[in-house]
Amino acid sequence: MDDSKNNSYFSEKSTESCELSNSSLGYQKDRRSRSNSITEKIEKLPYESGTIKSFCRSKGYGMIIPIEGSEDIFVHISEIMSDYVPRDGDFVRFKRIPIPPKNLKKQAVDVHFIHEDEARERWPHTP
């Protein structure tokens, strides 16, 4: 997909917000919300696989190494569809979209762990 010609993922105003708040329970994450048209475009994209290269829990973001060998991809905690805290080396599947407003770099969205272990650390739930 040629992203220089297709800047439509975020061409309209979307309602996106995410907070990583510090409370007595530790950091908590809140999910982002998007407009329906952006969600529909993302749903049509294929999933890719990769590995968490690094993840900064206190900042709420990290990088994914795609299996097919392209450039590392930015991932924000709000795009991880699990309550598990990401760890370096976790295998994930994700969809790739351009980062607005210039759409020159990519970010991972709709990120899912391929293997989830019940014993691993989870983000606290927001009240």
TrEMBL record:
<keyword id="KW-0597">Phosphoprotein</keyword>
<dbReference type="GO" id="GO:0005737">
    <property type="term" value="C:cytoplasm"/>
</dbReference>
<protein>
    <submittedName>
        <fullName>Calcium-regulated heat-stable protein 1 (Trinotate prediction)</fullName>
    </submittedName>
</protein>
<dbReference type="InterPro" id="IPR052069">
    <property type="entry name" value="Ca-reg_mRNA-binding_domain"/>
</dbReference>
<dbReference type="GO" id="GO:0043488">
    <property type="term" value="P:regulation of mRNA stability"/>
</dbReference>
<dbReference type="GO" id="GO:0003730">
    <property type="term" value="F:mRNA 3'-UTR binding"/>
</dbReference>
<dbReference type="InterPro" id="IPR011129">
    <property type="entry name" value="CSD"/>
</dbReference>
<dbReference type="InterPro" id="IPR012340">
    <property type="entry name" value="NA-bd_OB-fold"/>
</dbReference>
<dbReference type="InterPro" id="IPR002059">
    <property type="entry name" value="CSP_DNA-bd"/>
</dbReference>
<feature type="domain" description="CSD">
    <location>
        <begin position="47"/>
        <end position="113"/>
    </location>
</feature>
<dbReference type="Pfam" id="PF00313">
    <property type="entry name" value="CSD"/>
</dbReference>
<feature type="compositionally biased region" description="Polar residues">
    <location>
        <begin position="1"/>
        <end position="26"/>
    </location>
</feature>
<feature type="region of interest" description="Disordered">
    <location>
        <begin position="1"/>
        <end position="37"/>
    </location>
</feature>
